[in-house]
Amino acid sequence: MAVNAFIKLVPSSAKQTVTIEEVKELFHYYKNITAKTGDQLDWQYGDSAFPYEIKETEEGKGKWFYLHSDHERYYSILIGVDTETVHNEDGAVSEQVYIQITLPEQSTYGDKGKANEFCKFLAKKLQGELHLFNDRIMYFNPRK
User: Fold this and answer.
1) Sheet with 53-55: strands ordered across
2) What is the DSSP code (8-state) at residue 18?
3) What φ, ψ does residue 58 adopt, rounded to 5°?
4) Would you tell me the crossing angle of helices 109-126 and 20-41 to the nearest 10 degrees?
5) pLDDT of residue 123
6) Fewer beta carbons within 10 angstroms: which end of the chain, N or C?
7) pTM above 0.70, yes or no
8) What are the angstrom distances between the C-alpha of 70 and each of 36, 74, 120, 143?
9) How many other β-carbons are positioned within 10 Å of the β-carbon of residue 7?
10) CA distance 77 to 67
11) Model pLDDT for residues 39-75, shown as the tens digit of each residue
């Protein structure tokens, strides 16, 4: 059975909206900084830190993409952006943007580990509320 994690952009987040292209840019940024770490260590760390290629299908264009790996320890991770309706404390109804990270049934433990890393990275960058695969919540947004 597929499992999901969510990064919700709450009112105190750095941004209230995010597009799939911005999420791709953040993955490229992640890949770039891990490659720089490898350069400093004189080791090909970028290949180990990000063993995936970003792929997009026609049906998912603008809504979701997936990370695919040919490495034996990894398979794939799906990433999408969508909105949900939320009810605030004062009774108002609003739209909330979230990023959904899905591990399909064929995913490995390596995929789950990498997905957790990417989720934490994205949630920190966007100052969002991270709902992990195990239903626990991590708050990276400023709280009162």
Assistant:
1) 53-55, 64-68, 76-87, 93-103, 3-8, 129-131, 137-139
2) -
3) -65, -40
4) 110
5) 94
6) C
7) yes
8) 22, 7, 24, 40
9) 28
10) 5
11) 777 666 656 777 888 888 888 888 899 999 888 889 9
